[in-house]
Every structure is written in C-alpha cells, then in structure tokens.
Amino acid sequence: MSNDFVSVRYIVDDVAASIEFYTTLLGFTVQRDARPAFASVIRGNLRLLLSGEASSGARAMPDGRQPVPGGWNRILLVVSDIAAEVARLREAGLSFRNDVLKGVGGSQILLDDPSGNPIELFEPAR
C-alpha cells in the first residue's frame, strides 16, 4: 500500500450502500472490497475505510463502548461550485444537516452518508 494516502475510518451500517454512495455520488473509486465487513474507497490521496459491524474497526472497546456511525468529526471534500453540488445531491435524494454557511474562508455544508457519518462539502473563498 502506498504511504501517499491519508486514511480515515468511518463505521458504517451497510458496506455495500456506503460503496454505492461514495463511488456513485462523490467520485471515489473502490480500492478494496471485502463485503460485508469492510471496503476502502479512494479519492485523490484520501483513503476512506468503510468498516461494517463485522470488521475489526467496529469491535467493542475493552470498557464495552461500541464504535457507531455519526458524530461530528468529518472528512472535507473541496468542491468548485457548492450550489451546484448541493442541488445535484438534493436531486439524488440526499439529506444535509444544515444549509450552506458562508465564512471568511469559504462556504460549507454538511451532508450525511447512508450511515449518518458527516461529509463537509467546502468551496474555498475566491
């Protein structure tokens, strides 16, 4: 495996649905498919590890806590036209946690994947 990847692990409810979501709607390609337990998808130098309940990444901690999807930590995907991306993804029936927020660095919105993991779409200020 290349050391050129930045890897992020997401706990997901359904590996197959997650592969479909990330490859069809967000431009990732499959690097490894070990359904139903695990898959890795890549976009640029980002490697996203999709860990289903049968994967080692989803095993309970020694104190009994169980990794679950969701939360607020997220990957950030840079887009060139946030309005067009939001319209395209809403047309595909996807849900967002908020509306586009504009700040000094640019515009952002939070999209949920099929398991409720957040993805930030970010358009840098021009």
TrEMBL record:
Residues 4-124 form the VOC domain. InterPro entries: Glyas_Bleomycin-R_OHBP_Dase, Glyas_Fos-R_dOase_dom, VOC_core. It comes from the Bacteria. Gene3D superfamilies: 2,3-Dihydroxybiphenyl 1,2-Dioxygenase, domain 1. This is Glyoxalase. It comes from Phyllobacterium sophorae. The lineage of its organism: Bacteria, Pseudomonadati, Pseudomonadota, Alphaproteobacteria, Hyphomicrobiales.
